Each structure stands twice: as C-alpha cells, then as structure tokens.
Amino acid sequence: MRHFDQIRAKRYFIDAIISQAKQDGIPLSEAERYNLAWSESDPSFVQDADMNQKLEQEPTMQEYEKKIEDIIKRAYKTVVASSPDGKQTFREAYSVLNKGDHYILVMLRAALGIRLNSWWPF
User: Fold this and answer.
1) Positive or negative, the Cα torsion across 69, 99, 60, 44?
2) Could you tell me if 9 and 97 are in contact, meaning their C-beta atoms sit under 8 angstroms apart?
3) pLDDT for res 122
4) 65 domain residue, yes or no
5) Of the candidates 59, 71, 82, 54, which has an alpha carbon nearest to the alpha carbon of residue 13?
6) What's the total number of domains in the chain?
7) Alpha carbon distance 14, 91 (integer Å)
8) What domain range includes position 18?
9) How far is CA 53 from CA 18, 63, 84, 88, in A?
10) Taking each helix axis from N to C terminus, what angle separates 61-82 and 104-112, rounded to the nearest 10 degrees?
11) CA-to-CA distance for 4 and 1, rounded, in angstroms?
C-alpha cells in the first residue's frame, strides 16, 4: 500500500491519466495537463493566467471531461490488471484526495463512481 497525502494522491491520478493517454496515443495539451491539477485546496497549485486563457481556446469543458473520463476508465483497468493492489491503491488515493477540492475528482467520480468505494467488490 502507498501512503498518500492530497498532493501525492492527485499526482498519482495525473500520472496514471497521462501514462494511459500516451499508451492510447491520445494527445493531451499543456493546458489539459494543467487543468488536471486545478484545485481550490492545494496550496502547491498556482493559478496561471496564460494557461487559463489557453483552456478557453480548447474544446468545451464537457468534451474535455468526457475525454479524461474515458482515459480514467482505461487507466483504472490497466492499473488493476497490472497490480494485485491496484484497486486498493486507486481507492486509497481517491479517499485522501476526496478530502479536498480538486477538479480531477469530478472526472474520477464520473468515470469510476461506485468503484471508488472501499466496500464495492469490482
């Protein structure tokens, strides 16, 4: 098991998403990567006006969220298939991250929903 704080948990998910996107051949722009880290409660996250402006030129937030949700679903399957502790690691990271206000949580919940609860067997 890993021991997460919110920053490490968020980094875990961002790394999993970026890795899966690369594996799938799906490009993520600099602005899309920045948006994965967006947070109201992470003191290490620094708002970047240039990135915010670039995001406005990207596809809609709805399209972005759908793209990331699909990547998260595949990343979850990849992690679970490659590690006997994969499910538990996702759940532990989610449990810690869920204590804060992080944009990535919106997409994690939409992609995995009930699977993130520790009592759900799948």
Assistant:
1) negative
2) yes
3) 47
4) yes
5) 71
6) 1
7) 15
8) 6-116
9) 22, 17, 41, 37
10) 60
11) 9
Cα–Cα distance between 14 and 84 in angstroms, integer? Answer: 21
Residue 114: Cβ within 10 Å count: 9
d(CA 45, CA 111): 23
* Residue 29, both tokens: 């722009």
Does any domain span residue 25? yes
Q: What is the pLDDT of residues 57-76, one digit of tens each?
A: 777 889 999 999 999 999 99
Task: Pick from 18-27, 57-66, 94-103 the range whose average pLDDT is largest.
Answer: 18-27
Give exposure, 5-42, as e/b (b: 16+ Cβ within 10 Å): ebbebbbbbeebbbebbeeeeeebeebbebbbbbbeeb
Beta bridge partners of 39: 102
Q: Residue 53 domain-assigned? A: yes
Q: Is 111 exposed, middle or buried (0-12, 13-18, 19+ CB in 10 A)?
A: buried
